[in-house]
Amino acid sequence: MSLFLVMFLVVSATQASIHGEFINRLDFPDGFMFGVSTSSYQIEGAYLDDSKSINNWDVFSLSPGKIDNGDNGFIANDHYHQYLKDIEIIQSLGVDAYRFSISWARILPRGRFGEVNPMGIMFYNKILDELTLRGIKPFVTIHHHDFPQELQDRYGSWLSPLMQEDYVHYAKICFKNFGDRVKHWITINEPVYFTIMAYQNGGYPPARCSPPFGNCSAGNSDIEPIIVMHNMLLAHGKAVKLYRKIYMHLQRQQGGLIGIAEVCGMFEPLTDNDYDQEAASRGLAYSIGWALDPVMFGDYPLEMREILGNQLPNFTTAEIEFMKDSIDYIAVNHYSTTYAKDCIHSSCSLTAAQPINGFVDRVREQNGVQIGEPTGVPSLPVVPRGFGEVINYLKKRYNNKPMFVTENGYSEPETPQLLQEALQDDTRIEFHKLYLLSLAQAIRNGANVKGYFVWTLLDDFEWRNGYRTRFGLYYIDRQTLDRIPKQSAKWYQDFLKNKTRPLTVRIGDS
Ligand SMILES: *[C@@H]1O[C@H](CO)[C@@H](O)[C@H](O)[C@H]1NC(C)=O
Ligand SMILES: *[C@@H]1O[C@H](CO)[C@@H](O)[C@H](O)[C@H]1NC(C)=O
Ligand SMILES: *[C@@H]1O[C@H](CO)[C@@H](O)[C@H](O)[C@H]1NC(C)=O
């Protein structure tokens, strides 16, 4: 029996693919932080309370047909009023840390063009104080997709360099008011993903795009994403420069760290021919490098320059200075893996075969076999091995810069119709076990990963998917807004509590 078990473990440790039940908290290094993630617009609601202004998502929600089921974030989970309950839930899970974001329109209802809203500041002060009291470390995202609509109406938000000034003004107010308690900042959540959604597909506000990517009323899908990314990156760089210079005393005093979050999906070549291998490299460079190369090395990826040439802006010498090394850690959001198919030498869909997409088609099937089990988001099948692969890619490309996995989670392919069905979420538990196993192996092979956050605490407003896509450890009854723990919440709690060392040594490891 025990010999069998040992042999079984050897196999599972070397293959790290299908034996999730063997994952244990002690597979992660000392000081490794576990947490849960949320974002302001997805949970807060209270969209007009206490002088918060209308933001881009409030406006987008009102535009018919933009969001599944006509959902909006006006009430969301009413976290604004129920935050205390939610912090109690967070504490009950036994996590080390909690990642949330600040609502820009709550703090600065009119951006730079009006006053700071003291009630907005007070709300986040209460959250930070509660977390501190309970020994939970806050990871704070400054900008997670939502901003005051006035900045859109005045000058077109991220399409204009003026947005950089607004962002830096806002970030400065966050540092000043919250910096004494926040040791882990994230400047912007998923700039590449946001940019593609908002300016290439038109699936996020301000819903700009052009054919063949979509039929928006205005926009240019080839050019605008490039301009928007440049503004977001410079906004990041300028805010970090300010944080490090003006708030140096804070940073030194408390060891504050600042990073940027990007969704880091893995790309595997569809076939082993050279073209597809190059396509996989381009896929990674376009989706990850577009954000991370500039903040690590001060310039855009070569893979992008080769194709986009002069369409890609240059950073000035002064900008390169502050862009370079402008992160202390990489905040990695990871969900899935895709096959990459080359579109330079073979034919692809019209949208894939474009310079702005690096001539890479994202394919989920190889020889008739799906890359992974489906989830509630068709582009995000379950591919545990890809997690370790992308962590290794980041380790190599960015010289093993410290990483925190700030999002990883699962949504059911079919929205559960019955409560009992929603609560019995074994597939979510299996997802986390397998992904954690893949991560643990990458860490044992030297990847400098320091934390892992589940997306997400509560079922929430999943942007254009509305409330039907459920990623939460807690089920939200949309009528009563009751928070009901799913099995996965119980599993996470047990996982975090279990400090019993696994019986078997990891024989199969190198
Ligand atoms: C845009 O509209 C045209 C004409 O109505 C239609 O043929 C095309 O499929 C639409 N494209 C997208 C991406 O929706
Ligand atoms: C960027 O710099 C390169 C090399 O100095 C130059 O050839 C190119 O024209 C510049 N591109 C833009 C968009 O200014
Ligand atoms: C705790 O972890 C050990 C080692 O992995 C495992 O054998 C045990 O079943 C776990 N206990 C619980 C309560 O999950």
Automatic annotation (TrEMBL):
One family name in Pfam for this protein: Glyco_hydro_1
Gene Ontology MF, one: beta-glucosidase activity
Keywords assigned: Glycosidase, Hydrolase, Signal
One annotated GO biological process: carbohydrate metabolic process
Superkingdom of source: Eukaryota
Signal peptide: 1-16
Keyword Nucleotide-binding: no
InterPro entries xref list: GH (IPR017853), GH_1_N_CS (IPR033132), Glyco_hydro_1 (IPR001360)
Record flagged with keyword Cell division: no
Database matches in PROSITE patterns: GLYCOSYL_HYDROL_F1_2
Family, similarity comment: Belongs to the glycosyl hydrolase 1 family.
Protein name per Swiss-Prot or TrEMBL: Glycoside hydrolase family 1
Species assigned in the record: Artemisia annua
